[in-house]
Task: structure prediction
Amino acid sequence: MQNESLLFGFHAVMEAIKSGKAIDKIFLQKNLQGELSKELIQLLRDHKISPNTVPAEKLNKLTRKNHQGVIAFTSPVSFKDLEEVITQTQEKGEIPFFILLDGVTDVRNFGAIIRSAECTGVHGIIIPKTGSAPISGDTVKTSAGAVFNVPICKVDHIKDAMFLLQAFGIQTVAATEKTDQLIYDISLQEPTAIIMGSEGSGVSSGVLKIVSKKAKLPMYGEIGSLNVSVAAGAFMYETVRQRINS
Result:
């Protein structure tokens, strides 16, 4: 897995961080020792970058070169501060509309969601620092370049982002089958953040406990579930429909 966004080795990764490059993901080998590892870890703390600690086998799969126990992926876009994006949206006099992705790991699904978000006027997409798809070349391609037009906010924890949104008066609506409420019966004309869950297990139980509302799409087929990017598009366009009619 070689691409232009992959960096490896202490010096290359540290220089990228110091130069201000947006780091999408960083992997550290377990039980790293030595002065350089200490320097790198301190640098990550100073820049509030959360690394993924993994076994050497994981790093060896990413590159066969001498990675020294550290691999980073840079992002083609700079991540935005969520509170700033919310404030800017409110200052424009627009009704906030956000998408939170709770564990979406497929880059093509991520790109497709970004594309739909750009088309429906979403003000920002919120992803966690760990457990989410990277912004790779495939993400950019699938989004048709929309990734450069929609603010991407990376947060430490989805729950913290939800509490912040709710503090600003923005309702959080989870897309889940664990409800009898259809999305068509919920008001989306007010400030709203829609939460889409992972491809396999959906929105996590911890997140479901603190959402403002839960909603689902009607299903009439045998399969009983949609691809997350398709479901996200349906939720986004229902929001647009309601706001146009208002």
Observations:
- The longest helix spans residues 228-245.
- The chain has nine helices and ten strands.
- The mean pLDDT is 93.
